[in-house]
Design goal:
The protein is α/β, with parallel strands linked by helices and 186 residues long. It has a single domain, classed as TIM Barrel (Alpha-Beta Barrel). The protein contains 7 helices and 7 strands. The chain has a 4-stranded parallel sheet, with helices on both faces. A 3-stranded antiparallel sheet has the order 5-6-7, with no helix packed on it. The protein starts with 5 loop residues before the first strand and ends with a strand. One of its GO terms (molecular function) is hydrolase activity. InterPro entries: Amidohydro-rel (IPR006680), Metal_Hydrolase (IPR032466), Metallo-dep_Hydrolase (IPR051781). It holds the Pfam family Amidohydro_1. This is Amidohydrolase family protein.
């Protein structure tokens, strides 16, 4: 069919088994270790998509209704996810971008994944690359998406601000959205 399989894996053993089975992207990879990262490179796994937004919003109790146990668990999960994300990047594994938020929460907290990654020490340029070209690589569309170049599909968002200098610019709704080069909204 010309496609591949992504696996939802948090645990170390699950990551390893999925990679050995030929899975091409590992979603979350919360407890990745060096062996997991090496296996991903050895087996041609495209990369991983950590999703900090959900535990990040729970750990901060934005709703005002999160149980204390969930706040503690979420804070712990974020630390593991960030460590795994950094380990993957250092090993040469492509790190993509995702949120795991439903539509309602994504609308409520725009840019929360950008904020979370930056807060935990990922520099702004790296976060922007993860959200663009690196994610395009994971879905094997980097020849058409992920960068602004002649001949590529011009799916773009225009942000009021300089997210390379201040990632909080990504917490606003885009001023303009372009789809295939035509203004879609804005």
């Amino acid at each position: 069919l010309g496609t591949y399989v992504a696996a939802h894996c948090h645990g170390t053993q699950g990551i390893k088994e999925a990679v050995k089975a030929g899975i091409k992207t590992i979603e979350h990879a919360s407890y990745m270790d060096e062996e997991s990262a090496e296996l991903m490179l050895k087996h041609g796994t495209y990369g991983t998509v950590p999703t900090l937004a959900m535990p990040y919003t729970l750990a901060r109790d934005y709703s005002g209704a999160t149980l204390p146990e969930f706040i503690a668990k979420s804070s712990d999960a974020i630390r593991h996810m960030v460590d795994s994300m950094k380990l993957a990047a250092q090993a040469g594994v492509t790190v993509g971008f995702g949120t795991d938020l439903d539509f309602e929460n994504a609308a409520k907290y725009p840019g929360i994944e950008f904020e979370a990654r930056a807060e935990y020490g990922i520099d702004n340029i790296t976060v922007l690359r993860q959200a663009t070209i690196d994610s395009a690589k994971l879905v094997r569309m980097d020849d058409r998406l992920g960068t602004v170049k002649a001949g590529k599909i011009a799916d773009l968002v225009v942000i009021d601000g300089k997210p390379d200098e201040d990632i909080s610019a990504m917490k606003q709704y885009p001023a303009h959205v372009f789809k295939a080069g035509a203004e879609f909204c804005g």
